[in-house]
Automatic annotation (TrEMBL):
Keywords assigned: Hydrolase, Protease, Serine protease
Family: Belongs to the peptidase S9A family.
SUPFAM superfamilies, alphabetized: alpha/beta-Hydrolases (SSF53474), Peptidase/esterase 'gauge' domain (SSF50993)
Protein name in UniProt: S9 family peptidase
Record keyword 4Fe-4S present: no
Record-linked Pfam families: Peptidase_S9, Peptidase_S9_N
Residue ranges of domain Peptidase S9A N-terminal in the record: 10-415
Source organism of the structure: Paractinoplanes lichenicola
Length: 692
């Protein structure tokens, strides 16, 4: 049962449950919370939600104010920059008062080369209206969204719970008719054959690992669908797509550190997939079709990756194009008829490198700000010399440019509007460096209103992630302005385990070096205090998912360094989860965290940093913990168990648990609901920082 009085938070029942591995027996008093169907579980989560609402009731006015600020700065009726594909411009538009985007297209007019800036031209066709599809559902998300090569058919899939299991459907864009074809329980990813008669899609196994690629013939029942490829190795998952050239279906199979690619001609969808190169443990590669060849981005004897090619007719030896350059991480390659564009990063910043076909020379695009993030945007056309890129910084709103790859000229197509008189000159961004305990220099990106730095220690939010080689690059946020304009400094700690500084940065923050992620973050926090940016009493930390694990770890490692911590969908019971191969994604995660089932060393190492395993009777910072009942990536019971144990072991602390009862890993799906959720978090932070 759950014990609660009107003036006290819930106290979950303790039902001891033992597990034993490698001679180590552990008692888990809250394992029962993993039973989603147990009425006690629902009662506990609802009691926590009620307590959180009561404990933050005094912030309701501030929450409303911040929501109004986010809404007031956002152009609610807007559209994306249209992207050309064949005879149409495709775009997404939003309408004031509506939660979801509307997917549309309009015909290309004779002689029209530039994308239209408005939809005031004839022939707009609504392909999908997310608001109509969502209806009264509490949650809605699109998975697949693929228009056939001839533009006649649309494959799309929907999720109404947040568990990332989608129902796939086909719509005839000529008539608006919805075909009877319907495939339940699909995953992300789909691809059309060249003639639109066949659709490839993906399903998952019992552990929710994407493991099968299917071939569906349009107009035939799903019971007749054929398995094209099944991945037997439980460490690997599969993906499917169509090359930009529309010549090949690509089936990718990958683990955290190894990959294998198969292709089949898009005009022969029933042919047997051809392996580009057999998998070799530790070798990752991806392919792009480019005329007579496949471009291959790989890490074979190239830690930061190199670029090669092989024949598209008979893939065999790899011919070097760009050799390995230590310190320059090649992240992806995009092929166009006469150009190749490589996305890369160097010294913690993203960049784009261009090669003209037939040339061995390349050039890198240049950008004016010292901190920024840049990458390719929507580029569906293969036969083009113009590409679209997205650019942002911590003071520059998201901007869309079209770049002529031959003349190198750039045309700004759109910058995200920020209403209310936003002036980037009122803000400034900085790059600082912290020193980790082992002497490693760790970059920190910072943004603040001008003058805040000079006035001495300021309230500060420090964000971190640090896993899966994912990089948290400098970016602009409308919601963040509600902090900056109240004098709060915003900082991103680019810690090891992420990919900001190249592949070695990632390698030094995983498996048996995972502690570097946590000590790097603490070093960043301490550096901000030492250098006069803030003080521990004025510092809040925030992280989500694997970044939520980071939050739990630093709460145990250095609770005195923070006034508050926000842990969203936090992976705070990693050892228990990674020990259970039946759970979603566990086996595929072993190459990231290690396999504690087979290795006593890994078991002891993970137990040493697991937030749930290491809750102690100490004075913790104020904690706001967020969860999603239908989360399939970090199961809801991890944050629930963590808060329950915190209440029992370290009583008297200010711990709040808020569970979205109708959502998954990404939280509320509608934009207004997401803004309300963000306003809730920001108001809580400002309360911790004594700015409420």
């Amino acid at each position: 049962m759950t014990i609660q009085t009107p003036d006290s938070p819930p106290s979950a029942a303790q039902v001891p449950s033992e597990r034993t591995f490698h001679g180590d027996t552990v008692t888990d008093e809250y394992a029962w919370l993993a039973d989603k169907k147990d009425p006690r579980t629902t009662a506990y989560l609802e009691a926590e939600n009620a307590w959180t609402e009561r404990a933050t009731a005094h912030l309701s006015g501030l929450r409303g104010t911040i929501f109004d600020e986010i809404k007031g700065r956002t152009l609610e009726t807007d559209l994306s920059v249209p992207s050309r594909k064949g005879d149409y411009w495709y775009y997404t538009r939003s309408v004031e008062g509506q939660q979801y985007g509307i997917q549309c297209r309009i015909p290309v007019q004779p002689g029209q080369t530039d994308p239209p800036s408005t939809t005031d031209q004839p022939g707009e066709q609504v392909l999908l209206d997310g608001n109509e599809l969502a209806g009264d559902s509490e949650f809605f998300a699109l998975g697949a969204y693929e228009v056939s090569v001839d533009g006649n058919l649309l494959a799309y899939s929907t999720d109404y719970t947040g568990d990332e299991r989608f129902t796939l459907r086909i719509k005839d864009l000529r008539t608006g008719e919805l075909y009877p074809d319907e495939v339940p329980d699909t995953s992300y990813g789909s691809a059309w054959s060249a003639d639109g008669s066949v659709l490839f899609y993906i399903t998952v196994d019992d552990a929710w690992r994407p493991h099968r690629v299917w071939r569906h013939t349009v107009g035939r029942p799903a019971s007749e669908d054929v398995i094209v490829y099944e991945e037997a190795d439980e460490r690997f998952w599969v993906g499917v797509g169509l090359t930009r050239s529309e010549k090949f279906i690509v089936i990718e199979s990958g683990s955290k550190i190894t990959s294998e690619v198969r292709v089949l001609p898009a005009d022969a969808p029933e042919s047997e997939p051809l392996v580009i190169a057999p998998r070799v443990q530790g070798v990752e590669y991806s392919i792009e079709h480019h005329g007579h060849r496949f471009l291959i981005l790989h890490n074979r004897d190239a830690e930061d990756f190199a670029l090669a090619w092989t024949s598209a007719d008979a893939p065999a030896d790899w011919v070097e194009m760009i050799p390995h350059e230590p310190g320059t991480r090649l992240e992806s390659v995009d092929a166009f008829a006469r150009h190749i564009v490589i996305s890369q990063r160097r010294a913690g910043l993203t960049g784009l490198r261009v090669i003209t076909d037939g040339s061995t020379d390349s050039y890198e695009m240049e950008f004016p700000e010292p901190l920024y993030a840049v990458g390719l945007s929507e580029n569906p056309e293969y036969d083009t010399a113009t590409v679209r890129i997205g650019y942002t910084s911590m003071v520059t709103p998201g901007s869309v440019f079209d770049v002529d790859l031959t003349t190198r000229s750039m045309v700004l197509r759109k910058q995200k509007p920020v209403l209310g008189g936003y002036n980037p000159d009122d803000y400034e961004q900085f790059r600082e460096w912290a020193i980790a305990p082992d002497g490693t220099k760790v970059p920190i990106s910072i943004v603040a209103r001008k003058g805040v730095r000079e006035r001495g220690p300021a309230p500060t939010l420090l964000y971190g992630y640090g896993s899966y080689e994912a990089s948290i690059d400098p970016y602009f946020s409308i919601a963040r302005l509600s902090l900056l304009d109240r004098g709060v400094v915003y900082a991103i700690a680019h810690i090891r385990g992420g990919g900001e500084m190249g592949r070695q940065w990632y390698e030094q923050g995983k498996t048996l070096t995972k502690r570097n992620t946590f000590t790097d973050f603490v070093a960043c926090a301490q550096s901000l205090s030492r250098e006069g940016w803030t003080t521990p009493e004025l510092l809040v930390a925030r992280g989500a998912s694997a970044g939520g694990l980071l939050m739990g770890a630093i709460a145990n490692l250095a609770p005195e360094a923070f006034a508050g911590i926000v842990a969203e969908v936090p992976f705070v019971d990693p050892l228990t989860s990674i020990l259970d191969p039946s759970l979603p994604l566990t086996v595929t995660e072993w190459e990231e965290w290690g396999n504690p089932l087979e290795s006593a060393e890994i078991y002891a190492y993970m137990k040493g940093y697991s937030p749930y395993e290491n809750v102690a009777k100490v004075s913790y910072p104020r904690l706001l913990v967020m969860a999603g009942l239908n989360d399939t990536r970090v199961l809801y019971h991890e944050p629930a168990k963590w808060v329950a144990r915190l209440r029992a072991v370290a009583p008297g602390g200010d711990y709040l648990l808020k569970t979205e009862m109708g959502a998954g890993h990404s939280g509320p799906s509608g934009r207004y609901d997401a803004w309300r959720e963000e306003a809730f978090v920001l108001a809580w932070m400002l309360d911790v920082l004594k700015l409420a």
